[in-house]
Amino acid sequence: MLQAGTIEQLQSFAEIMADIVTDGLKNALGAERAIEPKNNTRLAWEELLKEARACTRCHLYKYATQTVFGEGPLDAAIVFVGEQPGDQEDLAGRPFVGPAGQLFDRALEAAEIDRSTVYVTNAVKHFKFIRRGKRRIHNKPEAGEIEACRWWLDHERALIRPPVTVALGATAARALTGKTVTISRARENPLTLDDGGECWITVHPSFLLRIPEEDRRKAEKKLFLRDLKRIKARAEELRG
Ligand code: URA
Fold it and tell me: What is the b/e burial string over 42-65, where b = at least 16 CB atoms within 10 angstroms of the residue's CB?
């Protein structure tokens, strides 16, 4: 039979133990909160990058210099998706650094989108080209190559979970929607992707570089700028 004093001692011992456990839990939870979720995202992204650098999902890795993976903050509100790296991107190992990238940068600036705040990637991560003498001429990726590479794009987007993803051109639109789209029609209204994010479709910057007539080029650049401004406004609206 326990004495009344013993019961009180046991009760206060139990209370002290409960406090210790609660404090321990609080500390543990606090510590967990202190580990930014983005740090886990960063670690996962780095693993993804490591794997992508050794990608053999299609044959394109055999001819390209290296995998050109996406870059940018992993909490970006906007993910831009191009087609595939070009000659300069293949050598530099970074997306959109060549002539199309320079036009893209100028357009972003005009739309007041800071490139360092957005994530930029491609539907296909290896440069596909035809060799002509010393030159390597861009060669459009086929459906099977886009499909094989979509695995990386899906994982990039799954980590970033952007409210807005932008398809720059038909290849990116196909990778994101699984469909062939007509840009002139598709650019007017965003689509909803499986994860609930919005997909905005616009032209590829290299399309603008290839327009020979000055008037038409100017008009198309204006439309591109209009799209970018809409995209920026929408991303701000969704992110709050
Ligand atoms: N064109 C693309 O689609 N992506 C690049 O990275 C460069 C040019």
Answer: eeebeebeeebeebebbebeeebe
